[in-house]
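Input/output pair, single chain:
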Amino acid sequence: MTEVHKNSQYDDFYSLDKPRRDAIVMLFEDDLSDEQIAENVNRTRRTLAKWKNDPKFKKGQDAYKHVVIKKDYESNAIRKLNSLLSAKSEMVQLQAANSILKLSGMLSDNSTPELDKAKVRKANAEADIAEQKAQQLSNNVTDDLTINIVRNDRSIKNEEADNN
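Output:
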């Protein structure tokens, strides 16, 4: 049975009474049937079934799962990823590097350097449009305004070079 140290991050687990905490541990370890777990915590199978549907119990399970995985598996997983950086397959190396960067918070599933640059360009274009509209309103111009946005950054040169 994994020992979990008290920490505010795991309040959802420690806010439960001991029989519920013990049931969560046994459910996580998955060695016993629900009937055996209920018997070990001096409750009925029906009570355990009610607990398993209780939102507080589910939160306690999530908190326990997080601490056990962090304590027992996280460092091994990171060591394994590190060793995969020198794998024979470049694809495996790339996936390991991406996983490490994601774990460190330096890269997300929704972010790539190219996507980040495109988002910056879009934000700049939207800012230019908003500035032109504000200028139009402040000058009390009532006719339509056409805004031409010209990209003159290095990415055009890079795209041309990639196409050649």
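The chain has a mean pLDDT of 81. Residues 98 and 106 are 9 Å apart (CA to CA).
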